[in-house]
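Let's do one together. I've listed all components of the complex below, 302 residues spread over two lines.
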Amino acid sequence: MFDYYANPARFMKLSGVLLPWVSGLTVILFAVGLYWGLFIAPADYQQGETVRIMFIHVPAAWMATFVYGYIAFASAVSLIFKHPLADVAAKSAAPIGAAFAFLALMTGMIWGKPMWGAWWVWDARLTSVLVLFLLYMGYMALWQMIEEPIQAGRAAAILGLVGAINIPIIKFSVDWWNTLHQPASIVKGGGPAIHSSILVPLLIMIGAYMVLFTALILAAMRAEILRRRVRNMRLAQAEGGYHG
Amino acid sequence: MGKYAYFIWAAYGVSALVLIGLTFYIWSDLKRQARLLRRLQDKGTPKRPSARAMDNAP
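Okay, and this is what the predicted structure of the assembly comes out as:
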């Protein structure tokens, strides 16, 4: 089934049908999540009103690492099976992941100032997320540097896989090193350490970011497939036409 | 939101700006590539056999 839908022509057809529905769901989830997070959820007993930043900080941070995992998986599929859509999937995800990593850093800094008294500290969690952002930048630069898509895809796939070592470092940085950043509060042994009045809007916002990513990746992959078709037609033109 | 309102709205503002900007960038790229492809097809650019195969392989 994977092979069937991974055919670019079929992907274009299916994604064209899915995209309006996924976009609509994104708008609904954001509307509900933002209203709940900003106006219904109570202030935290320790962090006060600043806890509302969590509703956009945690989803951005989760998505930044998730999207890199997605790139690493697509890179492995590209290198092992040489699947035509795997490169397209990985390349298209990079700017989206970079935006999430940027937002995780920015919202974290804005949250850190009132809570820690500093915009930035060089601790393990913050530094490893900054490295993730730089990895995204390097990955995108590599795609830009090599003009031929197959060669670029191969080089980028290697970087995508090697960079994946940073994902467990980010996840466990709060356990392995002393850090100002709070430890895991949702995915942890013994269940979430957050009250449901805050956990529910947080999960809705994580869902909203996840569905937004789905909408954006579908659109970005469609654009990349079209870009490659345009490139092929221009190459045919440059060769002076082929009367076959 | 009390004394932290500035921080909270700044965080939401920058998130809105980046996510709306990203959506607009991807959407306009999709429209641009579709327009370019249509223009080339309208011009009747001949397809090589390999390019025909690329309709099914990006």
